[in-house]
Amino acid sequence: MTRHAGVLVFAELSAGELDDAGKGILAEGRRLATTLGTSWAAGCFAAAGGAAQEAFRRAGVPDLVEIDGPPGLADLPEAQAEALVDAARALGAKVILLAHTDQGASLAPVMAARLSAAIFTEAVSYGRDFAGLTLRRQALGAQVVEQRIWTDAARDASCGEGAVTPLVLTMSRRALSAVVPPGTPRGEARRTSRTARVDATGEGARVTERIPPDPQTVDVAEAQVIFTAGKGCDRGTFEAMCELARLVGASVGVTRPVYDLGWTGFERMIGQTGKTVVPRLYFAWGISGSMHHVGGITESRRIVCMNLDPKAAIFPSADEGFVADVREVLPRVLAHVHAAVDSREVKR
Ligand SMILES: Cc1cc2nc3c(=O)[nH]c(=O)nc-3n(C[C@H](O)[C@H](O)[C@H](O)COP(=O)(O)OP(=O)(O)OC[C@H]3O[C@@H](n4cnc5c(N)ncnc54)[C@H](O)[C@@H]3O)c2cc1C
């Protein structure tokens, strides 16, 4: 029997497992349900693997709806959205919560249209007060915070369908943490299966190919590994860093003084005025570590830096630091990587 849940969280699985965004949105689902004073459930496509089941248990997911369908379901976003809408209706969910990943960003508007719901995307925080649920996101290149209020937060879903305008909410990836908050009750989720109704012959969009992002062109805000050049790099060192980044599959960033030299476009400048980044690895080459720059990199999972000055402000912000001359080290690292790449080509 399907139970009631005020919040339905979509847990995105990749090869049956949850990534950090998936774990983060589960933690957020629990927090949102507590904020709204309601129950919650998670929904996912395909059978969740062992590690995902453990993540659901650690996140204290009370109810898990596993949506089954033909193998082609993964390529039919509209059918996926329809299946999630069906699950939300069956649960009586007022809010559908998703991580703002590629999949979350494509499902959210379709679901909102099907449910005649309010939609708010890339939220970075929220809170409840007498007016409703206040949702916040960054706007105008993170210069301002935009705020909207979902006033139906105070109304109960038991008022009946139509009485409450549902909300489809996506959370910005940078607002999500895979860390399970202490005190979260753990336990096996009650598992329910649903079968997606799929019209494989329908007119809807179909994914025909998935192209991995090119680190050289991807938005630095989405990049996984970033090499950033500061004023400590001269032109030759900067070019060596760009070549090294190309060879190892990293994206290129710059500080403001380097942008001012005209070596890259504004879209590669990182920091308070530039982009905020959330990579797995951030390598700062010849960067002093001013607050205007560091403010944009603090959410990086690992920060490594190299600077001639052992007292440079970047060191306390870094997980690992090297006191060294980037103009000497970078060309040597590049030569080593070139040699390694060349020998691999020869073996092939
Ligand atoms: C309102 C405002 C907004 C700003 N927004 C941004 C922003 O978004 N992004 C941003 O980056 N800046 C921003 N800035 C500028 C910021 O305050 C700093 O001036 C800037 O980040 C410094 O860049 P840098 O570290 O490359 O240069 P520097 O501060 O000049 O540091 C260069 C560093 O390189 C080291 N170095 C020199 N030679 C070598 C070598 N051969 N090998 C190794 N290390 C070496 C030096 O020891 C030094 O620490 C902003 C400033 C203001 C006022």
Automatic annotation (TrEMBL):
- Electron transfer flavoprotein alpha/beta-subunit N-terminal domain span: 7-166
Q: Which UniProt keywords apply?
A: Electron transport, Transport
Annotated ranges, domain Electron transfer flavoprotein alpha subunit C-terminal: 219-297
Which PANTHER family has this protein been placed in?
ELECTRON TRANSFER FLAVOPROTEIN ALPHA (PTHR43153), ELECTRON TRANSFER FLAVOPROTEIN SUBUNIT ALPHA, MITOCHONDRIAL (PTHR43153:SF1)
Positions of the UniProt region annotated as Disordered? 179-213
Pfam families linked to this entry: ETF, ETF_alpha
Its family remark reads: Belongs to the ETF alpha-subunit/FixB family.
Q: Does the keyword Electron transport apply?
A: yes
Q: Which domain of life is it from?
A: Bacteria
Task: From the Swiss-Prot or TrEMBL record, give the protein name.
Answer: Electron transfer flavoprotein subunit alpha
Query: Which species does the entry assign this protein to?
Result: Anaeromyxobacter oryzae
